[in-house]
Structures are given as structure tokens and as C-alpha cells.
Amino acid sequence: MATLVVDRVWRPSSPETVEGDLAALWRDVGRDARIARAVMSNLVVYRRRRDSERRAVDILQTDAAIEAVVARHPSRVVLVEHDARGQQATTVTASVGVALFGPQTARYAVDQVAVRSACVETSLPSIVRRFIRGDLPTSIWWNEDLSTVPALEALIAVGRQLVYDSRHWQDVRRGVETIASLVASQRIDLADLNWRRLAPLRQALVHVAPSLGDTVSAFHVRIHHRSDEALAWLLAGWLCARLEWASGIWPAIDETPHDDEILTLAVGAGSTALTISMNDHRVVVSVPGATPFTIRVPQVDEAEAVAVELRSLSHDSGLHDALAALARQAPG
Amino acid sequence: MTTETLSERLARGEAGPAAATPVTIVIFGGSGDLARRKLLPALYNLHVDGLLPPRIAITGVGRNALTDEKYRDFAKEGIKEFSRRPLDEQAWETFAPSLFYVAASLDDEHGFASLGARLDTIEHEHGLSGNRIYYLAVPSSVFVPTVKQLGRFRWVPRPTDSGKPAPFARIVVEKPIGRDLNSARVIDDAIAQVFDERQIYRIDHYLGKETVQNILVLRFGNSIFDPLFNAKFIDHVQITVAEEEGVGTRAGYYEQAGALRDMVQNHMLQLLSLIAMEPPRSLDADVVRDEKLEVLESLRPIEGPAVDGCVVRGQYTAGFMLGRPVPGYREESNVHPQSTTETFVALQLFIDNWRWAGVPFFLRTGKRLPKRASEISVHLKNVPPILFNTGSTAPLDSNVLSIRIQPDEGFAVGINSKIPGPRVRIYPVKMDFHYGTTFGASSPEAYERLLLDVMVGDPTLFMRRDAVETAWRWVTPILERWAEARTPPNSYPAGEWGPREADRLIESTGRTWRPL
Fold first, then answer.
1. Average pLDDT, whole number, for chain B?
2. Are the Cβ atoms of B1 and A244 closer than 8 angstroms?
3. pTM score, whole prediction
4. Which segments of chain A does DSSP mark as H helices, in order?
5. By the 8 A CB rule, do A15 and A29 touch?
6. What are phi and psi of B178, to 5 degrees?
7. CB-CB neighbors (< 8 A) of B94 in chain A
8. Segment B336-365 mean pLDDT
9. What is the value of ipTM here, to two decimals?
10. CA distance, residue B99 to nearest chain A CA (Å)
């Protein structure tokens, strides 16, 4: 477990003086102890600006979720709270901070820049580029529901990776449509935290695949989910892509809100069905005529999951193929 | 439509479990210290990370009469005490059912027969296909009889020509493999009668450490370093493996081994071969191991009287560790009062190849040194004594690349830099990389990585027979010289950096040991 923040300092700044103010903060924190300035990447965190009265300096003081991520993957945080309603009059305020982690003998710290902006979308890159370090990879962590707050094209342009969580999607169909253009253009690598949650179930299916024969028809597949429709859709999209189901073919997906299992996949019917069911702790695989077996579900909190994605920085072909299949074939 | 099978299509793009093939791990010495401290916690952590094969049985074998339940209690206690993560009850609930225990005597045919019957039952009940990994967590004196029993009971299918037996059998052998070249050959010959070399995994846990694996990445994944790694730019290299502990409860083994056999012949020569090897043409296990072997084969022999000038041995006497008095080696329990076993070795060696011609390598290791620290430091040549290096009383520090293996894994580069101000004053600053700081999450233990590699069938991080025997061939003349000389080792007080002679060894070349 990474060390949580042990101290933090911050001060109001302005867009023009961010680097100078950060340097001054570093001089202050480094006066009494040796502190490593750790930066492996830029982490641009996007949120919609809701409270116009809140100051940029305020949002740095309270964000434990971001600190938990950068404790695990030290990054320069650029936290953008943006009002994208298309104002012509641009307003941008900024504040800077330094968050310190680690034991006294191995203290390290990261830069934090908070920006509150209200401007046209096309001007947003000029703000973000000013604050990121260009020689490092830039990941965008979308702290909003992509199905209701679509990713800003302008921001996508400066990033290498988009991290989001489809579990928060209120409207899965719209979420898929939103992400479809990014999948098609392949301009940015996608990292869906929900896809990571699905990994043990995919692993289980790969393991029992030899017992499935040469082909699996979508008509023999049924997916039950407790309350995570996006997770069920991701599974269906992946199966659709990997099993090469024809256009218009789609498995049955049902919501079973009172089930103990988060997600259950059944292939076949009745006593001959192969079932794979997943809860928060394990996946149970039941194959007709064989001893059931379980796979451990790794216990990973959200901060660790985000940090793992930031570290990986690679194109996840499975996710991209699943999303492409969803965009192509999911019922409207 | 693709021509891939359904399995291949589903597996495409999946990281999946590193080890997917069902397997039974049979730990001989399953109720012993190594199993409790290292193997069972490592397997538990692999389970927590979802890296174990979905179908697995872990069967401890030992002389103690334990039930499966008692063995699970034994494992749980070990995990609680030694796992890098606290025990998670829910994870334990899914891990424990894969643990079994069989009480059997390794030299007793009846014991082996009953072990075989139990393994068959476990495998049948759990849908396991008979793939087995035999882990010899037992004293080396029991290696040969155990392996012979495995052969006698026909538990070891040989690999097919494709190298993929079905089912497979692999054996993991812990060091020490022998105590000199001849005894190593006896053990290797006995194992080779039953197992093909491709089935043998000689474990050196140092090679499973992240920093050690990072040596190749550092050298061959960064264009800044590789051009410097040769006699033109490198002045010398130091490798230190320092232990705080005394001999503790291992006196029975250590009295027969000593520091040269315990540390130099295996861990330190493996580190040396990684830091000095030529770039392999691929990461294929045998290609990497061929290049490492080349280094060992290029070591200039140290034989006869040359041993006295190039190798220093020491033995700790009573002293202080963190202010507390500690006994000398000869006062430790189960140590002979006139023991001449060395607890410290320092030596200078040369690698006679084009890259390293004339570059001295200094190795030192010992017990009861001031701190636990393992490090490789690569010392670059000094800049000429002009411009900024003209002060004869305070020459510039040479640039040093230091690779910390434990504790606090990471590496650092020392660079001379101007202190801000009107005058040119130079200060050596350090660019320091800490694994823990940079990558946050705790690194897997070496045994986790190595056990996973055995399950996957990747022998890259394991020692091949030719490397083990080449290392023994180089070390044995030193042992023989010491045996002939009959002089006692130099003494050093516990808590000091070895005997004074070790300092003289390096100072005679105009260099000093790097302070740690």
C-alpha cells in the first residue's frame, strides 16, 4: 500500500506565475529536509465546473482521491474544473500546491496545479499545455460520467491516454456512442476501470474455452448483472468481437438486482450450461461434468486501479475491440 | 473468419494469468522454514494478485505428521508473519482449499508410494492433469535420494522433442548445489539421470529481485549507459552484499559452507555476470544464459599463491551492533571454538575479454557488517586534472552509477554540479531513483516472480548447469588454497566493514571501498 499524503502546502497563483510559484513552494518545503521531486507523467483530471464561486486554491485542499493516485504513481497533477458553456469572455484562475508522501527518510512530493476555467472549448488546450510537462506522457482522468459529460475534443488532443470508469454511466448506450468516435479514430488509448474489473471473468472464460468447442452462438449466451449494466455490455462486446458474431446478433442481458453475484455468464441451458459467476471476491466456474473451480478477484481500490492504468500506457486491444463491437452491434 | 481456435480468439489481447496451466506443486520440506517463511507466503501473494493457475494444488511433504487442516494452520501462521501483505481472510478462504499435506519419509519407498496415491487422489478430485512441480526445500544432502525416488516411481516424464511434455514435470533446486566442483557434479549428474536440463530450475533468489532484473533494462534499454560500459570509460566496479545478522540458527550449514560458498559462488557471480555480460541477441532464456556464462568463462583464474594477494577472508569477533554487544562467530552456538570458517570475503578479479580488459572488479560480502546492504557500483574514470579538477587536495568525485539491490531498491547517478553563486564551486549531486517512491506499490518478493516463472516454464532467471559448474571451477582453487594454508581468517569486530586487510586490498590499487 502506498503511503498517503503526509503534508501538503498550497498557495493561490495565476496562470502566468504557476511555475514561479511552484518553485517558491519547493524552496519552502525543501528548506528543512531533502525531498525528491517525483514526476513520471502528467495527470490531467477533468471536472465540470459547477460552483462558480469556488476558488482554485480550495480544490487543492480536499482531494484525497487524486492524492491517493499520485502517491502510487507520482505525477504532476493538473486539475481542471471547466465551464464549457461556450463563454466568449475567458476567465482562468489557478493555484499551486505540493503534496508530500513517504517516510521521513525517503520523502517525495509531487506538483499540483489547479485551474478553474470558463472559456470556449477550443482555447482549453492552450491552458493545459501551459501547465503540463511536455517531455512526459499525459493521461486524462475523466472524473465525470462520459455518458452525460462527453470528453472534450480539445482536451483529447493533448493526451495520450483517457482513463474513465463506465460504471458511472447513467446511460450506457450514450456512453458507447460517446466513446465510439475515439475508438474509431484511435487518437488516444482508452483505459476503462470497469474493463479491469471484468478481467477475472475474462480470464476464467479463456481458461475453460477448450471445453466450449469450436464456436459459441450468441443465442446460447445469457448475461445477468446485478446493477452494472456497463459491465455486462463490455462482456457482451468482448464476446461479440472475439467470437466474431454476425452483425445484429446480440446475447440476452438481464438485470437481476437482488442477485449475490455482480455478473453471471451462462453458455448453454439447463444442466448442461457452463456458468461463470463473479462477485467482489471470486469467480466461480462451473463446467458440466467437472469439479468447479474459483479464481481470486484481486482486491484493488480505485486509486490503485487508476495508478495501474497510468503505469501501463499501452493500447488495450481487447477493450478497443469490445467497444468497437458495442458501437457496431449493440441494440439501440 | 479467422483460422484461430476459439481458445486462441478469446485469449487474444488478454494479459490473463501468467500461469494458466493446471499444476500440482509438491514441496519436499513443506513443513520447514523455507516453506513457512518464503514459499507459502509467495504462493499466497500470487493468489491474491490472481496470478496462480485457476486449478492448482500445493502439497507439502514432510516427516511431521500433520493433517491438511493442521498444515493450513501452519501455512496461515507463516503467511501472517512473513507475507509482504497482511493476511486477508477472504483471500485466505479461497487459497486454503488448494493446500494439502502428506507425511512421508523421502528415503522410504512406502512413504513415496503413499505420497503418490494421495497426489493421484488430489489431482483427480480437482481436475488436475498431472503437471507437477517438485520443489526441493530440503538440505542438499537429501537432493540425490529424493530425485532417485522420483525417478524410481516414474513421476518424471521427459520432455518431448518439441520441449513440451504432456503432462510436464519440473524440479526446483535450492542452493547450495554442492560444496565444490566435484560434489556439484555428483548432484547434477544424479538429477540429470531423472530430469532433462530443460526441466531443472536451480533457484537463486537474488535473480528474482526487481533491481537485478532491472540491470538488463538499465544497460540495454538506455542508450546513455551502454556506450560507457567498457574499459575505456569504467575505472572499476564494486559489488557488495553486506549482512547485519550473524550466523544465527544456520551454524550447522554455515560451518560447512562459509561466505565464499554461501554468497560468492552463486549470488555475487550471478550479479557480476549480469553487470558485465554482452548484450544478448534476444531475451530467450538460453541466449541470456549463454551470455552470462561467457562472463564466468572469461574470469581470470585465481590459483595458488595468487589467492593470497587477491582474496581476503575474515571472521567476525565479538563487537557491537546498534550499541548492543554481540558474540563473535566462534562463540555462536553450534560453531566450533576453533572454527576457521570465513564469515567475510573480499576479492579482486578480472574479466579477460575485450570489453573489460584491465578493469578490476571488487567483491565483498560478510556477516555482522554495520548494515544490510547489497549494491553494485560502477565507477567511471575521473575527468583529467584540468579545468574543474585541478585541486590536488580535493579532486572531483568520479561519476558513480550505483544499483541498490536491497534494501530500498533503486539506482543513483552521482553528477558534479556547480553550486549557485559568483564562484565556481562544485558539489556532487545525486540523481536518485527509488522503486518504492516511483512505482508506489510494493514490489513482489523474489520468490513470487521465480515461482511464477517455474509455473510458466521460463528458466531465464534460473541457473543452468554449465554456469553453476563454471562458477565452482573458478571458486574451487581458492577453497583449495585456503585448505592448504591452514591459516586462520583475519578477524574483524562485529559491526565493522570487515578486516583491515580488505581495505588494503583495494587501497593498494589507489581506490577505496564505496561507503554504504
1. 90
2. yes
3. 0.82
4. 18-29, 56-60, 64-72, 124-131, 153-156, 172-185, 193-208, 229-242, 302-312, 317-329
5. no
6. 85, 175
7. 281-282, 294, 296
8. 97
9. 0.79
10. 14
